[in-house]
């Protein structure tokens, strides 16, 4: 089984390397945007982050206290909401535009926003920035 996985990875190595290079370039673009002081891009990024936070708070904010209290019905409801959102996202990703356009756009935007975030973090250790990027990559 390991050999078949290895063969598959070897066959797809150029695709994997291209995707990795695109992701790294997007992170570098976010870093450069932040350090170049492109004010309009930074303002746009801040607004986008605020809107995302507001949307999450709008949906999940009212459940915070009941979740802290450990109410079973609230836990089940929030789990169902997350499952529904992920199911819709999976459906979108399995359509033709979702398999071609959405992942590439998500990769570039995600890498760029991670680069912007990476430029603003204050690491607690030498390893922290690399762990931050690892988690972002896995996400």
Highlighted features:
139 residues; globular; single chain; mainly alpha
The residue-averaged pLDDT reads 79
User: In what range is the share of β-strand residues?
Assistant: under 5%
Could you list the spans in which at least 5 consecutive residues all have pLDDT below 50?
Answer: none
Secondary structure tally: strands: 0
Q: Biggest sheet: strands, sense, closure?
A: none
Total DSSP helices: 8
Separation of the first and last Cα atoms: 26 Å
Structure description:
With 139 residues, this protein is mainly alpha-helical. The chain has one domain. 86% of the residues lie in helices and 0% in strands. The chain contains eight helices and no strands. α7 packs antiparallel against α8. The protein is globular, with a radius of gyration of 19 Å. The mean pLDDT is 79.
């Amino acid at each position: 089984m390991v050999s078949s996985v290895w063969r598959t990875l070897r066959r797809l190595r150029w695709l994997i390397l291209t995707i990795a290079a695109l992701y790294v370039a997007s992170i570098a673009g976010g870093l450069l945007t932040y350090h170049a002081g492109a004010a309009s891009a930074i303002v746009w990024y801040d607004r986008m982050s605020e809107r995302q936070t507001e949307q999450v708070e709008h949906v999940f904010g009212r459940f915070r206290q009941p979740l802290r209290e450990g109410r079973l019905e609230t836990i089940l409801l929030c789990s169902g909401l997350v499952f529904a959102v992920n199911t819709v996202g999976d459906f979108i990703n399995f359509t033709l535009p979702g398999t071609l356009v959405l992942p590439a756009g998500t990769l570039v935007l995600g890498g760029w926003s991670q680069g912007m975030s990476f430029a603003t973090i204050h690491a607690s250790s030498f390893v922290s920035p690399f762990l931050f990027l690892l988690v972002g990559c896995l996400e």
